[in-house]
């Protein structure tokens, strides 16, 4: 269980992905994008649109079952990206860095970008936008839904 949660709305994700695209303009040009499925797909689409890139490849690394972490397994290789030369890898976040380490091993020449980064993983990315603490779980808009909120005055107080 995480100590903190950081909720990201669709608007914020769009804004942060565009901010990442701004930073990436001077690091390119890129021939194509490799999205790390599934979390990297939407940021990759936003960034590919902003950088006017039409070649979008994907790589799938399965590591987590909700908040439980296992061994990373590559279930889809990024065949069109070769050794990564001229390619931009995009993920939604780096946490421990284990997904990034696997993908960097597959595409050693690519530029690695993530929208959000935690301290243990940020050394593995070339570009990111926002850092959160290691004990924070990021709640993405595709994993959440709006629900009724109990008024503050009716909540139980601990002290
Ligand atoms: O730095 P790490 O500790 O490897 O964690 C980061 C990875 O974990 C999440 O993906 P997940 O494996 O949950 O799959 P998903 O993208 O399909 O949700 C997230 O999208 C990153 O890809
Ligand atoms: O939705 C997510 N939020 C996170 O903080 C995280 N870390 C690894 N995998 C994650 N998935
Ligand atoms: Mg992922």
UniProtKB/TrEMBL annotation:
<feature type="binding site">
    <location>
        <position position="92"/>
    </location>
    <ligand>
        <name>Mg(2+)</name>
    </ligand>
</feature>
<feature type="binding site">
    <location>
        <position position="138"/>
    </location>
    <ligand>
        <name>xanthine</name>
    </ligand>
</feature>
<feature type="domain" description="Phosphoribosyltransferase">
    <location>
        <begin position="10"/>
        <end position="148"/>
    </location>
</feature>
<dbReference type="GO" id="GO:0006166">
    <property type="term" value="P:purine ribonucleoside salvage"/>
</dbReference>
<comment type="subunit">
    <text>Homotetramer.</text>
</comment>
<protein>
    <recommendedName>
        <fullName>Xanthine-guanine phosphoribosyltransferase</fullName>
        <ecNumber>2.4.2.22</ecNumber>
    </recommendedName>
</protein>
<comment type="similarity">
    <text>Belongs to the purine/pyrimidine phosphoribosyltransferase family. XGPT subfamily.</text>
</comment>
<comment type="pathway">
    <text>Purine metabolism; GMP biosynthesis via salvage pathway; GMP from guanine: step 1/1.</text>
</comment>
<comment type="pathway">
    <text>Purine metabolism; XMP biosynthesis via salvage pathway; XMP from xanthine: step 1/1.</text>
</comment>
<keyword id="KW-1003">Cell membrane</keyword>
<feature type="binding site">
    <location>
        <begin position="137"/>
        <end position="138"/>
    </location>
    <ligand>
        <name>GMP</name>
    </ligand>
</feature>
<keyword id="KW-0328">Glycosyltransferase</keyword>
<dbReference type="GO" id="GO:0000310">
    <property type="term" value="F:xanthine phosphoribosyltransferase activity"/>
</dbReference>
<keyword id="KW-0472">Membrane</keyword>
<dbReference type="InterPro" id="IPR023747">
    <property type="entry name" value="Xanthine_Guanine_PRibTrfase"/>
</dbReference>
<comment type="function">
    <text>Purine salvage pathway enzyme that catalyzes the transfer of the ribosyl-5-phosphate group from 5-phospho-alpha-D-ribose 1-diphosphate (PRPP) to the N9 position of the 6-oxopurines guanine and xanthine to form the corresponding ribonucleotides GMP (guanosine 5'-monophosphate) and XMP (xanthosine 5'-monophosphate), with the release of PPi. To a lesser extent, also acts on hypoxanthine.</text>
</comment>
<keyword id="KW-0460">Magnesium</keyword>
<keyword id="KW-0808">Transferase</keyword>
<feature type="binding site">
    <location>
        <begin position="91"/>
        <end position="99"/>
    </location>
    <ligand>
        <name>5-phospho-alpha-D-ribose 1-diphosphate</name>
    </ligand>
</feature>
<keyword id="KW-0660">Purine salvage</keyword>
<feature type="binding site">
    <location>
        <begin position="38"/>
        <end position="39"/>
    </location>
    <ligand>
        <name>5-phospho-alpha-D-ribose 1-diphosphate</name>
    </ligand>
</feature>
<dbReference type="InterPro" id="IPR000836">
    <property type="entry name" value="PRTase_dom"/>
</dbReference>
<feature type="binding site">
    <location>
        <begin position="95"/>
        <end position="99"/>
    </location>
    <ligand>
        <name>GMP</name>
    </ligand>
</feature>
<dbReference type="GO" id="GO:0032265">
    <property type="term" value="P:XMP salvage"/>
</dbReference>
<dbReference type="InterPro" id="IPR029057">
    <property type="entry name" value="PRTase-like"/>
</dbReference>
<feature type="binding site">
    <location>
        <position position="95"/>
    </location>
    <ligand>
        <name>guanine</name>
    </ligand>
</feature>
<feature type="binding site">
    <location>
        <position position="138"/>
    </location>
    <ligand>
        <name>guanine</name>
    </ligand>
</feature>
<dbReference type="GO" id="GO:0005886">
    <property type="term" value="C:plasma membrane"/>
</dbReference>
<dbReference type="GO" id="GO:0032263">
    <property type="term" value="P:GMP salvage"/>
</dbReference>
<keyword id="KW-0479">Metal-binding</keyword>
<dbReference type="Pfam" id="PF00156">
    <property type="entry name" value="Pribosyltran"/>
</dbReference>
<dbReference type="GO" id="GO:0000287">
    <property type="term" value="F:magnesium ion binding"/>
</dbReference>
<feature type="binding site">
    <location>
        <position position="95"/>
    </location>
    <ligand>
        <name>xanthine</name>
    </ligand>
</feature>
